[in-house]
Amino acid sequence: MEILVNILHIIVCIAIIVIVLMQSGRSAGISGAIAGGAETFFGKNKGRTIDAILNKYTKFALAIFILTSIVLTLLLR
To answer: Which stretches are transmembrane (predicted)?
Structure first.
């Protein structure tokens, strides 16, 4: 049981790292300054929906991470 929870925990850790790295930052940085005027209204809304979806996935992955952390703590006692 402990091995399965450990494997799930590692997969969730990697997923959190990937999801967070895929999200855009609060300020778009140099790429936002260069391409900021080129985006259309629809392009901006598309980006927001992708960020919203990634934000939802982040919350879901963090919930699983916390759950597996608690289970691992209880299993190691």
So the answer is: 6-22, 57-76
